[in-house]
Amino acid sequence: MSVHILIADDFEGWRREVRTLLQARTEWQIVAEARDGLEAAHKASNLRPDVVLLDIGMPGLNGIAAAAQIRQLSPNSKIIFLTANSDSDVIPEAQHAG
Predict the structure, then answer these.
(1) pLDDT score of 82
(2) Where do the domains of the chain lie, and which CATH numbers do they carry?
């Protein structure tokens, strides 16, 4: 059984690095990538991935707002935030988003 993963980050180089690391595991399948929160929410709604790796600081719809939408559109998807944001205010916001 494979785990379907959506990677969402506005930095292409980071998405590529994460994809390369994850593809080393044959049971993990990257089903899509997204450049911003709106695209991530749309792809999560259509693809229903098992896991969404989500950056917080993306243009347009940020990761916190995207997580709230993904939670509604694909409630069984697990969300993992991957971010360089070290602002302590972000942690409660992320937890509240799901």
Answers:
(1) 80
(2) 7-28+37-97 (3.40.50.2300)
Question: Rounded to two decimals, what is the model's pTM?
Answer: 0.88
Asked whether the CA dihedral 8, 72, 67, 23 is positive or negative, the reply is: negative
Greatest C-alpha distance within the chain: 37
| C-alpha–C-alpha distance, residues 45 and 47, integer Å | 6
Query: Per the structure block, which two tokens stand in for 34?
Result: 């997204």
Residue with the bigger pLDDT between 88 and 53: it is 53
> From CA 58, how far away is CA 66, in angstroms rounded?
10
Distance of CA 94 to the CA centre of its chain: 12
